[in-house]
């Protein structure tokens, strides 16, 4: 274990991160582990259990055993438990933020926001499950047809390393609200904050075995979950390549899948927009969460009359963004999650230098000689076929390009394989809606960055995903709907064989 000092090392950091199966903290059946690094020193600070098929099998068995009890609890009862989970998350806000910051490199002020969002996810889905009715369809006095929803069974949840705890809560809350039991496979680069779930869920009264966690590398632990015949549903958030692979693997057992994948979301900025507000929003939208954000507005398309001015102001702001140790409250951009990811982002910066004009950033800040730091980086005059225009970089790097009219703006916005989010800036109400409707994406914000409303559908089109979660969509996903047809009048039945 490294003794190297790291900025913001939380007190009582666990040295071992174990699976949580059937209410017990367990090592892998074969004893395998993997090292976990922090993104400031890039040295290992803990070892985590590396799960495989046997561990997933144990977790699925525990979840199946807990299913009859949890799934038949009344909605109100489950909601009460979920409220207590939210309280238990909030009670640990400081601890959670400290762990998340240390493990993922997120600035501490933004990690605190994640704890509040996580708690809100539990409260929200508790409300949804209590308020949501089931549909009924009446056909005159003759027939009434009604829907019965039942939880699908053991849900498989697979999550990425960006905002890990919050994204885990985004799946745990609706799965538990719906009455599913589950196995969660957290991202291997950021397993630390997930180690709080056992105490949070137990304190809130979630029975043993209802929620289980198997840590490990995606290709082994994640794959075992995807391949398990008794897990009928996989909710996945991660990269497009992994998502494609999981959909292919899921076909074997015809699993229900939800895929929340990568993005390269455009900001379409017209000359009549409030440029000051747009500038704040663009800077925050692409550089917050270290730029490791699926909905980042990472392509900024600017109408020609304001292109030069906006690009210059964006570059100036990017140069002034405070990059620093994640635990420092003054930090706006922290350390990228892992040395491997950092190298990948730096590769894109090098590619960008050959493809476009670098107008801000592009290198490690001089005052931070160690750690995965990058000054927010702006490339201007980026052509549509450039790799930095087409590919998800997932770091503090933005590509800027001009357009001449609305048609070209829409064409450029749609010129990648992705379709997660889009942002439109204009003072023309009609044009705002027109462009929002024409852009190929699952979500559009007009005159704003990503401000979420948990009731709305969340997801992408094209290579950004399959299906929608959020609000009642999440409950639809974690439940099966059965229709019951009831004949109230006389059914007119042709009398075969009667004459
Ligand atoms: P990733 O695809 O590498 O890993 C995501 C998860 O999948 C991890 O837990 C990993 O262990 C697991 N995994 C890997 N291979 C697997 C396999 N064969 N079978 C089962 N599981 C496997 O993604 P990442 O690098 O952790 O996350 C970054 C990506 O996530 C970005 O592309 C980002 O856009 C995307 N993302 C999307 C959303 C969204 O809502 N659309 C939200 C956050 C992140």
From TrEMBL:
It comes from the Bacteria. InterPro entries: Ald_DH/histidinol_DH (IPR016161), Ald_DH_C (IPR016163), Ald_DH_CS_CYS (IPR016160), Ald_DH_CS_GLU (IPR029510), Ald_DH_N (IPR016162), Aldehyde_DH_dom (IPR015590), DH_HpaE (IPR011985). GO terms for molecular function: 5-carboxymethyl-2-hydroxymuconic-semialdehyde dehydrogenase activity. SUPFAM superfamilies: ALDH-like. Keywords: NAD, Oxidoreductase. The active site is at residue 260. Residues 30-484 form the Aldehyde dehydrogenase domain. GO terms for biological process: 4-hydroxyphenylacetate catabolic process. This is 5-carboxymethyl-2-hydroxymuconate semialdehyde dehydrogenase.
């Amino acid at each position: 274990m490294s003794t190297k000092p790291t900025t913001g090392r939380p007190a009582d950091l666990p040295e071992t991160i174990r699976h949580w199966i059937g209410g017990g903290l367990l090592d892998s059946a074969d004893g395998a582990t993997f090292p976990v690094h922090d993104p400031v020193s890039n040295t290992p600070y803990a070892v985590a259990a590396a799960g495989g098929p046997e561990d997933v099998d144990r977790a699925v068995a525990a979840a199946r055993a807990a299913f009859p009890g949890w799934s038949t609890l009344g909605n109100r009862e489950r909601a009460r438990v979920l409220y207590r989970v939210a309280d238990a998350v909030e009670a640990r806000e400081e601890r959670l933020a400290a762990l998340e910051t240390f493990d993922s490199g997120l600035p501490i002020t933004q990690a605190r926001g994640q704890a509040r969002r996580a708690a809100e996810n539990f409260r929200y889905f508790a409300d949804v499950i209590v308020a949501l009715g089931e549909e009924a369809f009446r056909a005159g006095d003759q027939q009434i047809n009604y829907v019965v929803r039942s939880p699908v069974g053991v849900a498989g949840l697979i999550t990425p390393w960006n905002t890990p705890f919050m994204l885990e809560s985004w799946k745990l809350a609706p799965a538990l609200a719906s009455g599913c039991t589950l196995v969660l496979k957290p991202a291997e680069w950021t397993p630390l904050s997930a180690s709080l779930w056992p105490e949070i869920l137990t304190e809130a009264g979630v029975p043993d075995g209802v929620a289980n966690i198997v840590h490990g590398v995606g290709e082994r632990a994640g794959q075992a979950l995807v391949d398990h015949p008794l897990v009928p549903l996989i909710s996945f958030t991660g990269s497009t390549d992994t998502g494609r692979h999981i959909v292919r693997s899921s076909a074997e057992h015809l699993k229900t899948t939800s895929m929340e994948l990568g993005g390269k979301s455009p900001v379409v900025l017209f000359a009549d927009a409030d440029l000051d507000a747009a500038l704040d929003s663009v800077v925050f939208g692409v550089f917050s969460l270290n730029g490791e954000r699926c909905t980042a507005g990472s392509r900024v398309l600017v109408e020609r009359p304001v292109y030069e001015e906006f690009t210059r102001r964006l570059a100036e702001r990017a140069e002034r963004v405070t990059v620093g140790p994640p635990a420092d409250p003054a930090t706006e951009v922290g350390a990228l999650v892992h040395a491997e990811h950092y190298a990948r982002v730096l590769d894109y910066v090098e590619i960008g230098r050959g493809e476009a004009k670098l107008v801000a950033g592009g290198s490690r800040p001089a005052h931070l000689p160690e750690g995965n730091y990058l000054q927010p980086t702006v490339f201007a005059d980026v052509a549509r076929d450039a790799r930095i225009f087409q590919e998800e970089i997932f770091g503090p790097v933005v590509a800027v390009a001009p357009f001449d009219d609305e048609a070209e703006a829409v064409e450029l916005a749609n010129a990648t394989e992705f379709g997660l989010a889009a942002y439109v800036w204009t003072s023309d109400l009609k044009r705002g809606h027109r462009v929002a409707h024409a852009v190929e994406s699952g979500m559009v914000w007009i005159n704003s960055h990503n401000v979420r409303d948990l009731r709305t559908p969340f997801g992408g089109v094209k290579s950004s995903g399959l299906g929608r979660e959020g609000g009642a969509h999440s409950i639809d996903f974690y439940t099966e709907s059965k229709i019951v047809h009831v004949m109230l009048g006389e059914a007119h039945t042709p009398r075969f064989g009667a004459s």
